[in-house]
Write a structure and sequence with these properties.
The chain has 402 residues and is mainly beta. It is built from three helices and 26 strands.
Amino acid sequence: MIHQMVLGRVPAKPHTALYSTDKGTEGQLLMEHCLTREGFEGPFSILYYKTPPTDESAVEEIQLPGFCPFTLGSVPKLHRQHLRTAQFPHAGDFLYGRKTILVNDDLQIGVIKTATAPTRFFSNADGDELYFIKQGDGVLESLYGFLPFRCHDYLLVPRSTPYRLHFNGHHGTALVFEGRPKIAIPSEYRNSCGQISMYAPYSHRDFRVPERLLAYDEQRHGKGPFPHVVKMCDRLSVHTFKHFPFELEGWDGAVYPVAFNIHDYQAKTGLVHLPPTIHTTFAGKSFVICSFVPRLVDYHPQAIPCPYGHANVEMDEILYYVDGNFTSRKGIESESISLHPQGIPHGPHPGTYAKSIGTKRTEELAVMCGGYQPFRLTSLAESVEQKDYHTTWVETEDSPAK
């Protein structure tokens, strides 16, 4: 999805024979497997399996309540909402502790706050996944190999990629987007040859790729049989394999996971305040995901750096607060998520608009998402909602922040 790459051993030409050189299986023909997007018209990768990926011995359905399936909350209210996701405790791993909190037709947004090591591999056949690592570091272990990650990384995991997320010490926090059908680099950031252009807010060099292939390790992967959890049509099934199914001889192509650190995002600044779309980092069919990073602010002598009042009548906007000072708002904490629905105006908190004049720099760190389809809260989201959030705009500057 970023650029073509190769890892491991592949034949000189696709669809030609490649034989094993491993001790005990020398001369065995390896299974070529083509993973394609948009039928055969989009990006693809070609993988060479040591054990065919069709070697499954059993399939059964499971449920992970809160993630899949989730329960929608009450009838949505047309007012601004605030979710205090810091109140969720650390529990489970990246899969068994995942909580879905906001949904629409094209996006499912959740949080993970891990406390245990991952056990099973998981792949999402409903859409691409994008993690934002709020806390922790570790390694993304996928069919494509090992990809180390660190705090404040985005991890883009292509649709149907088997993977596990390992946090060092098993303790981590992340926001996760499931985008249907895909999450990608915005087309306006690519030139006619497909390169990320020199006008984009990042370059090819900013994206990190898998470093080495997976090799079966009994201590790391356990003894067989090997379960693999798959999500499709908002249902989960477990596919059991007799042999470890994720060991490759090599692969090449343009579909594979990548890591990108939010601090490598090159923020743009104008003479006066620019709209939040200039912070777009990733995009899907009907949504954008934006990065707000520490940066210089507007430099007109009479500029008002604080965001102006806004009525986005065709998009819902959410903001996940990560760190730093949040210029437009009081009473927000790290891991807070604000939802500003289409149909009503939103704007800076009382007192922050005028106070921002003369500001030279902002230190905020946040992830924003704007979607054309309205978001619904799940019942888990409602359990951490600040119920009076929509009334806090009537406070005076001297009123205590909530």
